[in-house]
């Protein structure tokens, strides 16, 4: 009886094969397209990595001390090219860091006011990052509106800017007129005597952060959405809800707001 030979590959080998396949499947057609354009114009085009992308080694991140270690769950590329990131912290604060790609170093940017883990975030026209919500030690959404200013690496919070209710896993969308939309997110509606949450609820009220500050409530667009709904600014200036609900449509953020599209929810 013949004995069959069984071949196995180490995980690292498999990963390299997958990377090679992706390179062939994606980069080769793009290079061919560039060559075809060159033939059409009668000019030889040079492959432009800024147009088509380029493969390179991943830059190893610096190794901070264990006390400074942060998992980059929330990550934002700042206007000056640095990268702000933070992760989970259940001690009522945010352990954040800024990565400097030019020299591969880290700068601490902690926020002691609240845990912004599971919040929403998007940029305002002036470059400030607006973070909505977060969580308490009880995993309940908080109503905080927190700003990060990249000019001086500082966080700021004012209770006067609080949202209508807490939000845990909300979605933020920067609007074309300089305003910012926040939608969805959960909060704890009732607590037991020991302080634990006994009833969760979705925040159904979308709100818009106005250019002159303060939230504008979109009472005409109340809708219970799932956490982190898929919302995108469309070319018509409205916000498109792509899912994960069965309903898809446009949110008109002007005035008190309204959902538009086939069979809008009531």
Descriptive account of the structure:
By secondary structure, this protein is an alpha+beta fold. It has two helices and 18 strands. The N and C termini lie far apart (72 Å).
**How many β-strand runs?**
18
- How would you sum up the major sheet? 4 strands, antiparallel
Query: What are the segments in which pLDDT stays under 50 over at least 5 consecutive residues?
Result: 1-15, 17-28
Helix content: 10-25%
Structural class: alpha+beta
Arithmetic mean pLDDT: 82
Order of helices and strands: HHEEEEEEEEEEEEEEEEEE
Strand order of the largest sheet: 1-2-3-4
For the termini, the CA-CA separation is 72 Å
In DSSP terms, counting alpha (H) and pi (I) runs of 4 or more, how many helices?
2
Strand proportion: 25-35%
User: How big is the Rg?
Assistant: 23 Å
Write down the overall geometry. globular
Features:
266 residues; 13% helix; disordered N terminus; 4-stranded antiparallel beta sheet; single chain; alpha+beta
What is the topological layout?
Blueprint: H1 11-41, H2 49-52, E1 74-77, E2 83-86, E3 96-100, E4 105-108, E5 120-123, E6 129-132, E7 145-149, E8 154-157, E9 171-174, E10 180-183, E11 186-191, E12 197-202, E13 207-209, E14 215-217, E15 230-233, E16 239-243, E17 249-252, E18 258-260
Antiparallel strand pairs: 1-2, 2-3, 3-4, 5-6, 6-7, 7-8, 9-10, 10-13, 11-12, 13-14, 15-16, 16-17, 17-18
